[in-house]
Amino acid sequence: MYIVILGAGHVGFMLARQLIAEGKSVAIIENDPFRSKEAVNSLDCLVVNDSGTNLAALKKAGIQKASAFVSVTGSDELNLISCGIVSNQFPEVSTIARVRNLGYSETSLISSSILGIDHIINPDLEAAKAIVLALKHGARSDIMLFENTKIQMRDLFLSRESSFIDKPLRVIREECRIEFLISVVIREDYYIIPEGDTVLKENDRIYILAEEDSFDTIFEKEKVLNQRIEKILIVGGGTVGAHLLDYIFNEESLIPGFLGALKRFLKRGKKNIHVIDKDYDRCKFLAERFPKALVKCQDIMDEGVLDDSETAGSDLIITTTGNHELNIITGSYAKTIGIPKAIALVIRNNYKHLAHNLNLDVTISRNSTVVNSIIKVLRKGNIKNVYDISEGKLEVIEFSLSEKSAVIGKRLKDIKLPEKTLVLFITREQDTIIPYGALKVEVNDHIALITERESIKKLENMIAG
């Protein structure tokens, strides 16, 4: 697979690095000479310092032999135009455009008859979806969902008071008396694929695989309360905040029924969704568009804003400003003054570790959600979900097996999986199967596994056949 990326900003750089680690061939086109130089010095790929709308530059990057063209510059217009040029000149190349302005994704301008763009990725909408997903499941932890099963994966930070500390996993399982699997342990800057005798330590972050009901038992034991959410404070009324409000108040226009669980928590007839933003014009726009919300024009950095009795009485704070440091600090401070739960939006994935250490319940990385969405499109095989762990060193992948797959009919113990790859579960029709060596995989099985990024290429070949 050969992929041409337009834009070497944070997303383009992160995407290229991930694809290169998987063994894919990558070329980057970047107009800025400083970013181009940084990419040349840091990435093992071809870098072309030129404009993405220049056909000669596209050919120099090898677009004629590419499987996909991904445009992730900071300009929606450039992303759309460059994808349009590639689609017109090289119709066999799949095109993916990052577009921030939601209006573009609703207009006929991106229909196949005009620009021929195959996929539109909206970073702010993807971030809002991730926040809503966390809300829907109680905002108690980061969450990974899978298709056709009640099984989820969630993370848990082990503080000094944790009952799991200094105990081997087999003892913890016996004490909890429920079915669950601790699939990964993040300790300092490395990860462990644990076994029954692995002993957990203070400050470990563990990733737990279990059914949703079982998490109630685990979180209760760890004193992570399932706080009833009746009043929500949103700090930041930008595009992510606006998309989030759209989900809360007008979800039928985006994803029908997506907020069914959250709706039960919201009291009808009361303005229990509060929004704070320092831009007057933005506040006026939000107040007119969402009359059921209470919108305040305030600077969250001003003294006393969060200490206001009405604000401090919130059950949950969601920080979605364009400043990720401010989002982390505001969410952390809100917890100290009594707001039970906090969700923070960050730009880069490496801020998630800092946020978790500051007691935030959920951290959403906008760049990570965009890259994962793009990776899901690019992967060979029937990839359903992709999640990264430990700053991208590990990935949780869910895929379905087609009849062409090389592993159909084989027993799990006979499949030569890459080292440090663990099959988490298999979903067959509506049944979830805990893997065992003699289990044979069948057509249309959904398999969820965790693996190192360097093993992705081998797995893709096995999946696709």
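The above is record 1. Record 2 follows with the same two-line structure.
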Amino acid sequence: MSDRRRVLKVVAGAASAAAAGVAVVPVVGLVAAPAHTPSPLAARGGAGEGGWSVVARIDELAVGEFVQVPVIGSEVDAWTASPDRRLGAVWLKRRGAGTDAVEALSAVCPHLGCLIDKQGDHFNCACHVSSFAADGRALEGPSPRGMDPLEVRVHDGNVMVRWVRFRLGVAERVKEG
């Protein structure tokens, strides 16, 4: 009788292990797959193709005036893809009549990531009282560096910005992601 119980225990244990394996394998596959699959965002570099997002029309920008515009694009993490999300904001300034005469400064404060506002002829971060010159240089406050310049180009009348996130709180301009 004890041999019969021993055989039943082995069979029951094997059946339990097989059932647990059947349940665990799909879960492990679900969790591990995103870690090994390259992110479409990483392949594109950010917002749109090559990280470029259309943010304005060139004819909407007055020469010599800064205007703040949102950067809208796709955001992809390990689990979801979210199209048309606000990735951040930039300050644009048209310097002249040419299509290459547009500059872009990130509206994200290099200190802790608060939104930078324009007041008069300079920029301010209200969170921790950093101020910046009209060219983005840091003037005073805890910001470790000036405002981050971004690549900008004009194509078919569209102003496009290459959206990049930079590491916060450090003096060097280091790209994140």
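DSSP finds two helices and eleven strands in the chain.
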